[in-house]
Design a protein that fits this description.
Blueprint (H helix, E strand, L loop, with lengths): L4 H40 L6 H4 L1 E8 L2 E8 L4 H6 E6 L2 E7 L3 H29 L2
Antiparallel strand pairs: 1-2, 3-4
Helix pairs in contact: 1-4
């Protein structure tokens, strides 16, 4: 059993191409996960005037081989809606408003589905390059 030099050279070229394509696939997957997370968190955000829902933003941070998706809302009251807050009247706490946990629940769902989204992107590139 032997190998032809041409086959080895072709494999080398495919592996180099895959290395580049995998990086692009990871970037695409990170952006898709982030966009899906934004859609989910917006769906779960309660609406009064729509300001809170419309101010969700994201950015993807890549450090070496690690992608971090940062989802944030810059409105001052976003954390109070997320985690809950006291009701104070005359300096006395008279109640508690439960949080909606829209970001926390979205994060848990993304943790569950993101690995499969990443895998599908990389497998798609593998099939394209190696033809399987």
């Amino acid at each position: 059993m032997g190998y032809e030099y041409g086959e080895v050279a072709k494999l080398k070229g495919q592996l180099l191409e895959f290395r580049i394509a995998a990086g692009r696939a990871h970037d695409r997957a990170a952006k898709r996960v982030a966009q899906l997370a934004i859609r989910k968190v917006k769906q779960m955000t309660p609406v009064d005037k729509g300001d809170l829902r419309n101010n969700w933003k994201f950015h993807v941070v890549k450090k070496v081989d690690t992608y971090t998706i940062v989802i944030y809302n810059q409105l001052e009251y976003a954390s109070f809606v997320e985690k809950g807050h006291r009701i104070v009247s005359g300096g006395v706490t008279i109640g508690w408003v439960e949080g909606r946990f829209m970001l926390e629940l979205t994060e848990k769902e993304m943790d569950r589905i993101a690995p499969n989204m990443w895998l599908k992107e990389v497998e798609k590139e593998m099939r394209r390059i190696f033809g399987k």
